[in-house]
């Protein structure tokens, strides 16, 4: 693993499958959450990706500056609003994986 500031970044990939009738509403809620999340001091990156072959399949790419920042993110009003808004839109429960960010020198 890389040493230095970059190695401290924690990336979380969230895999989400949304009901077909909820795709537009999910997109709106997720884009608002992403815009607000990018303003958090502990967030280095927050992207919403939509699968090109399956409109209801999304991946959130969240990069945090420290290991504590994901928990801080989950305490924000915009995250709680997103969570509560999209909860019933999920076709299956969302999953996530955490990765340490590596960068060649």
Domain tally:
1
Structural class: alpha+beta
CATH T-level topology: Alpha-Beta Plaits
Average pLDDT metric: 92
Q: What strand line-up does the widest sheet have? A: 2-3-1-4
Shape by Cα distribution:
globular
Number of helices: 3
Radius of gyration: 14 Å
Strand content: 25-35%
Order of helices and strands: EHEEHHE
Description:
It is a single chain. With 105 residues, the chain is an alpha+beta fold. The protein has a single domain, classed as Alpha-Beta Plaits. It has helices spanning 23-37, 69-73, 77-86; strands at 10-17, 43-50, 57-64, 95-100. The chain has a four-stranded antiparallel beta sheet with strand order 2-3-1-4.
Could you give a short description of this structure?
By secondary structure, the protein is α+β, with helices and mostly antiparallel strands. It has helices spanning 23-37, 69-73, 77-86, and strands at residues 10-17, 43-50, 57-64, 95-100. The chain has one domain (9-100): Alpha-Beta Plaits (2-Layer Sandwich), CATH 3.30.70.100.
């Amino acid at each position: 693993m890389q040493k230095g500031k970059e190695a401290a970044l924690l990336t979380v990939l969230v895999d989400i499958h949304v009901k077909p009738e909820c795709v537009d509403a999910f997109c709106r809620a997720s884009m608002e959450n992403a815009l607000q999340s990018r303003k958090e001091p502990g967030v280095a990156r927050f992207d919403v990706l939509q699968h090109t072959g399956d409109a209801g399949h999304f991946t959130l790419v969240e990069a945090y500056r420290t290991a504590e920042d994901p928990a801080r993110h989950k305490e924000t009003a915009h995250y709680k609003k997103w969570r509560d808004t999209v909860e019933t839109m999920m076709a299956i429960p969302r999953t996530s994986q955490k990765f340490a960010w590596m960068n060649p020198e």
